[in-house]
Amino acid sequence: MKKLQIPSRDGYPLSLRIFETDKASKAVIQIIHGMEEHQERYQDFARFLNEQGFLVVTSNLRGHGAEVPHEDLGYFKEKNGYRELVHDQIYIRALIRNRYPDLPVYLFAHSMGTIIARVLLQTQSKHYEKVVLSGYPNYQAHTALGIFCSAAIRTLRGPRYKSKFLQKSSVGTFNQSIINPKTDSDWICANEEAVEKYLSDPNCGIGFTCSAFNDLFHLVMMMHKSVNYRNVYKDMPILCLRGEDDPCTGGEKGSKDSIDVLVRAGFDSVQEICYPGMRHEILNEAEHHQVYEDVANFYLG
Known about the structure:
The protein has 301 residues and is of the alpha/beta class. It has one domain (2-300): Alpha/Beta hydrolase fold, catalytic domain (Rossmann fold, 3-Layer(aba) Sandwich). It has helices spanning 43-51, 81-99, 112-124, 143-157, 164-169, 192-200, 210-223, 251-265, 288-300; strands at residues 2-7, 13-19, 27-32, 54-59, 105-110, 130-134, 238-243, 270-275. The protein has an eight-stranded mixed sheet with strand order 1-2-4-3-5-6-7-8, sandwiched between helices. A hairpin with a 5-residue loop joins β1 (2-7) and β2 (13-19). The longest helix is centred in the N-terminal third of the chain and has 19 residues, at 81-99. The protein is globular, with a radius of gyration of 18 Å. The two termini are 26 Å apart.
């Protein structure tokens, strides 16, 4: 595994990990992690993909990971950070193209990473051969209100202020669907060991600043608009994965809405797998090996 740091278009240092294969690689898989976590949590998955013949490139979203100063955790930029989150992935894709020009590139995104990925695909779908969306959040009708509230709080308290109101009214609602939860984060995984590991990780559950929430809500609004998709690679296979008990994807109704947006955008090959008994982080559930195999079979097919 190689560690790499590259500057994005505004000079922000992007932290990457490159997992190379021992033999010739079949393709490169670009991984985008989720909200309030980091790329190191995908090492086991990356090594599994290596065993299947894939080179893997992970990265930390800005405002995430051990390299970020504590005061910058959960913070992207004073304004319009959502644009930089998308362009960061375009820069990483360019790096992959320069380093591995002869290999096809696949995309794997989880949670907030799928929100970024869906906006990314609105202009960049022809740069990817296959896409997997894991734990894909659905659009919420109150997103516009979230943009307004987070902007107002940013104006009053500054862009780095962490609002308990924003946290509770967004991420904080997910645990309400869990019966007799033992922690505030039980919604992320039915695997209690995985939840405990998440809670003990200083770079998980970091909380978002009000400006970061504003960026997130902007991205959610953008991903829902099928008219924003241009020059769509309509034959590109997309695999949507979710746990049946994942409140973040909005259940069957929310999942259908997310997939319908992609279909209306012009993608002709969108399929879904729903895992009974699993919650949000399907890669960390006790039976995660089934998910691993499904992803590998999709990429290999």
